[in-house]
Every structure is written in C-alpha cells, then in structure tokens.
Amino acid sequence: MEKKLNFNVLEKNIQGANQLQALALAYIGDSIYDIMAREYIMKFYIGKINDLHKKVSTIVSAKAQSEFMKYILDNDLLTPEEYAIYNRAKNQKNNSKAKNATIIEYKLATGLEAVFGYLYLEKNFSRLEEMFSYIIKEYEKK
Description:
Blueprint: H1 22-44, H2 49-60, H3 62-74, H4 80-91, H5 103-121, H6 125-141
C-alpha cells in the first residue's frame, strides 16, 4: 500500500517543537543555518565552489557561531522562549566536540543552532530571517 507523503515546507510538520530534545533542535538548526549561510554567500560572492566553501566556513564554524551567539546575548536579542531553548541546548550533555573550537565555543554554537532549529520547526520564517540578519550584520563588520 502506498503512503501519501504528508509534508509541507511552509506548514508545521512537528507540533511542540519547544518540547523536543535540545540536541534534536540543534541537529536541524545546523542544517538550516548552513543553508542560509550558503545562500547568502552565493548571492554576494562569485567564485569556485572551494572558495565559496571557505567563505561559508567563516560563518558556520563553531568558533564563528559562538561569536555571533555572544553578540546576540550581549544585545539581548532573544525572546524568553528562544533563550530557554538556547540555554537547554548549551547545557545539554554532548559527547561530541568541534575540531577547531573550545568546549565553551561549541556549547554556544549548539545553542545558536537549537534556536535556528526551533524557529524553523515553528515555521517562524520572519524571525529566522531577523536572527540571521543580526548575524550577517556582525559578519559584515569584520
């Protein structure tokens, strides 16, 4: 028996995203953040794929993400719900670590990814865009 695919990119496919495990939110948030960064770089930079990849890495590395998260926290840019998601992810026990980042940087980056995952699953695209614009504003200063 064939199953009908019941999935819509624009509608919530998962209810209660704020109740999911923090690392599950970070798991999907990592992909969403990465795709937004790739699209941003492709829009403004022309080059070989390897050059584009290096440019994207300056936005998506755990070290870069931790710096962006510090900026977001220092400027009180998270809603209370987003802060709760960030905090849960940051404090979640995780057995993996980024290659080129400290444990603190990795935890901050995981928190950022969890917020992005939460916003995506909630289909809050305007807030996702707003959060990414804060990051790009900081990125462009460098």
